[in-house]
What we know:
Oligomer: homodimer
Mean pLDDT of chain A: 97
Helix content of chain A: 55-70%
Low-confidence stretches of chain A: none
Largest sheet of chain A: 7 strands, mixed
Structural class of chain A: alpha+beta
Shape of chain A: globular
Amino acid sequence: xxxxxxxxxxxxxxxxxxxxxxxxxxxxxxxxxxxxxxxxxxxxxxxxxxxxxxxxxxxxxxxxxxxxxxxxxxxxxxxxxxxxxxxxxxxxxxxxxxxxxxxxxxxxxxxxxxxxxxxxxxxxxxxxxxxxxxxxxxxxxxxxxxxxxxxxxxxxxxxxxxxxxxxxxxxxxxxxxxxxxxxxxxxxxxxxxxxxxxxxxxxxxxxxxxxxxxxxxxxxxxxxxxxxxxxxxxxxxxxxxxxxxxxxxxxxxxxxxxxxxxxxxxxxxxxxxxxxxxxxxxxxxxxxxxxxxxxxxxxxxxxxxxxxxxxxxxxxxxxxxxxxxxxxxxxxxxxxxxxxxxxxxxxxxxxxxxxxxxxxxxxxxxxxxxxxxxxxxxxxxxxxxxxxxxxxxxxxxxxxxxxxxxxxxxxxxxxxxxxxxxxxxxxxxxxxxxxxxxxxxxxxxxxxxxxxxxxxxxxxxxxxxxxxxxxxxxxxxxxxxxxxxxxxxxxxxxxxxxxxxxxxxxxxxxxxxxxxxxxxxxxxxxxxxxxxxxxxxxxxxxxxxxxxxxxxxxxxxxxxxxxxxxxxxxxxxxxxxxxxxxxxxxxxxxx
Amino acid sequence: xxxxxxxxxxxxxxxxxxxxxxxxxxxxxxxxxxxxxxxxxxxxxxxxxxxxxxxxxxxxxxxxxxxxxxxxxxxxxxxxxxxxxxxxxxxxxxxxxxxxxxxxxxxxxxxxxxxxxxxxxxxxxxxxxxxxxxxxxxxxxxxxxxxxxxxxxxxxxxxxxxxxxxxxxxxxxxxxxxxxxxxxxxxxxxxxxxxxxxxxxxxxxxxxxxxxxxxxxxxxxxxxxxxxxxxxxxxxxxxxxxxxxxxxxxxxxxxxxxxxxxxxxxxxxxxxxxxxxxxxxxxxxxxxxxxxxxxxxxxxxxxxxxxxxxxxxxxxxxxxxxxxxxxxxxxxxxxxxxxxxxxxxxxxxxxxxxxxxxxxxxxxxxxxxxxxxxxxxxxxxxxxxxxxxxxxxxxxxxxxxxxxxxxxxxxxxxxxxxxxxxxxxxxxxxxxxxxxxxxxxxxxxxxxxxxxxxxxxxxxxxxxxxxxxxxxxxxxxxxxxxxxxxxxxxxxxxxxxxxxxxxxxxxxxxxxxxxxxxxxxxxxxxxxxxxxxxxxxxxxxxxxxxxxxxxxxxxxxxxxxxxxxxxxxxxxxxxxxxxxxxxxxxxxxxx
Lengths: 591, 591
């Protein structure tokens, strides 16, 4: 069975040595000193590695079952959910007035990485609840907040997001679910939603569904979509759980992975719903949480990669197979461990250098969210809005590839289910799809975000990279980082220029390169993270740190990324510069 | 449910327009005229698309079960196997004296692609039999051939290959299975083998296991390994099936995919075995079939990619979602089909341009095998030996990625099992692992094949590419192909030079780049294939072909590959040229 060790030391390094959270002026950050975050992360590490990780394989094997409308979750999930609730893990970054702990989002993200890594399917139950609660927090009336939030923050009630219908996912303007207004101000919601994660189960006393639907007579398409609160059980005036509402689970999907999460077909049959936010502004209400939701999914790419990598390292050290080409390293044994072989190293270094930079990238992004929300910094808001599709698309594409690499190290033992390596890839696969498939992320980045506010945010990003390079170009030890980052950043700017020059007369010329641009920008972001981490490690070493080995390892890992992974930007640029011609050459019937 | 259309037209194009099989002097090739191969391919297309493809999902869902030592295969498999046998598909390229049809290997490969694409798990039953029969054909005594081959060629008896043990896969020198010599010249084989595909089932009257084992007292390690024939039922002197032998299936593995094939733990308990080939030369006996077996697995990468791609194209044309950025293309409908979107095109073109070139590459490789064996051409033998790890490693890595891309086009519908897209990726995943994991292929290529016979074969390959470029540099229409191929080939040569200059003093410097070199060479091979296909299509168009659309599509697809995929060689070269320094920087405990 796979194991999971919480990466608390590395999280601490990013929070304190790189992001220097407790020195930040963002409201709430002064509380985030080393001792405090260490205590939180150690506790989170404990519950995730000891309670959630052992249930990961159980969830995969047993899956969820639907019998007579009741969904059974895998053995042990309910008890674990109780422990998570009792530990207060569900409302870490939620307001105190609703029972949360009002911690910055960055700490919630650090904790969230461990939850996702140890058990992605399980963590989705609380993740979806967090998303739904955030929507109510942002758009609900005071009464709605008081009615739903205390129980959602504690996860006594869980939440869901209902967007997709059988015939539409990305293009929600075509949705058919209807909400008929009633005299009492409520609505009757009818229709079918699919792919609803955590849609039905018995781990909580109530399930608060957020449902997108159209009010008859409203505007056509996406502009006529509104958001509704549709509880599984109507909440009585005294706050207790009342009558069953007209919503039920019609089926559970059989899927490639995340078997421990109940992915439901939800049928709404004149279910009572309450408008959340403004009429016909449902998409906007959904989108206000989108940055956070998408960063949460990007995090799953990192989480899956780390969980898989940790087990690959153990296997590569244990499994004896072949001899080092430079001479036996385990001469007493029948063979050397796999880790002596250069190609195994190459794979492990790919994984390690991705994971550590992705961790920094996610935490930096979370810090930007805090800066945007807590410090009301519009520039930070613009920057994170630009980077969100990169976090989501690049980290889940790469994260998935890393799970495949980790699985490959096990050879045939990675293909059978016994070692759990197959599950990491099967679970990680969904992150490339949900919360906007990665093609949609790339479209969002190139088709919308680049030009947003007159291109201000992408210019700010380029300036940020440039400033980092200028500041550090003469710092000893930084040459392995600054030069490659400069080159990669130049590639990215050249691609941006290409889009500007060609995208106006032919939008396809830009969009044909959207996937490459997203990956390119992802590499530049991780390159920047490696630059910042290298700087922090060089400083720690110069200051006579007691943990020189950690920082030496960090620098060596970073050098690998800069030398071996970052040069991918040249390839992406070459592809982008070919424009749309070869991409769009065929008629639909020529495929 | 996914569908499968046999690519007979494209196979015909490669066989006749590109490879010009019937004009070849290779013995047997003169029979391969257009009408003959068309008849064979059409028939194979029929049974694969109509009989095997519909069973693919069934096999995945039901899997194989072990009850009281008996393995049950999925519903319909036995009847389909009967049809395959009756159709004479199992001995296409086997000698007539044992009931085969003595067709060239290239035709067997063309047929094999369709079998694998329609149902990989099913096709493995006959594929393993073919491999075992080839070993007996190459190394068996006349008596052994007469005893086993007629029934194996017809698949009345099936075969298996038993190499892996729990503690060793790649490093077979450590194996523990023993073969004790008996007075009558036979052996008693005892030990456990794992991951034995088609190890036990009731679709055939007997199963002929080929088992690697050590004869006590022989040389240490890999040099003391011998190969044995161990039939499930002892064959009586009159050729009938006799007593049950001491071999049994201990368990069936739960695995990520190919559920329809029974992957068995096989226990040998003083089972009667017969030495096949020379004592202690078991590895050599296995390796003589390795080229063919590995090309067969490379073909699975192509097959899976094509099966997945075909369904992605159908979905992309059917699914209405969003509007073309250049204006509605389906203004009457609620949305445009997915295929209007540039990023969907990019993905489909990646797939299509890979599949068609991979098909040509596999068939060209098969032609080289025929040239080596049928025409006893040592140069062809050297060239295919060089390219085998590329066929296996590159095509299965890429093939897998293509199934992931095809799945991605389905969005959430690709993640649920309903559409069968998840199965294509789960099945394709094994091809990167078995018959030598792809890291071993890269090691074989860089650590052994490049320098083989003084580097003669790689020089021959470079010369072949160079000659093609020289011959076609002034041919109108070829400029989009010749220039990029020249650049990519130059990258490959530069990488080869780097290995030569650095590998001697530090083998790790070469092996750290082995995976990149394998991929680079794969791209150059596919680039060469696109060059040859473009040439053929330009000629067809110049000759006033009646199917101009086919050839125009071919050229456009090729241009995409040259413009968008081939430039990856520069990235691989950049990585290779960083040597081993960053790859090997960490100690094992620093990971």
